[in-house]
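Per reviewer request, we include the raw input and output of the structure prediction for the construct analysed in the revised manuscript.
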Amino acid sequence: MASLTRAVARLATTTGRQAVRSIATTTPVSGHGDDVMEKWPADKFDNHFINYLSRPEIDGWEVRKALTELHDYDVIPDPKVVEAGLRACRRVNDFALAVRFLEAIKIKCGSQKNRDAIYGYIVKQVDPVLKELGIDTPEQLGYGEPEFFVPQPEYWWEKKWYKDYGFDKQPNFQY
């Protein structure tokens, strides 16, 4: 009986020491705490994406990853980065991604005034590359304006609904 108690006690103490040792020996290691891309200078930031997108062995997934990462930052890319992105899209033969990339840049420009100035400048700068690669802008494809649904109420709107929704009280109302 005593040997059984001794064996259990020895097992408990060695297991406890191993658990404590494994916890005590782990140390946090951080090597990239101050290397945040948002704090990089503009040239380093641009060169990172240009070099990444200019690799000849890049595949479609990596192009999407890079363009998504670029879109996540609060910057509008320089025309040279846009050129690298368009060339990468063409290299993986993804026309739709190139058009969506241009559309995302247009949306990132913000207000209509900024879109006219900034997006117009970017498109003007990358126009030779667009022509060389055979890529159209969203405006050339007809995606610059939304497609509106023009209702024909006589087909789907019942006349009694005008009264239900108060349209009959509007000035110049007729049906």
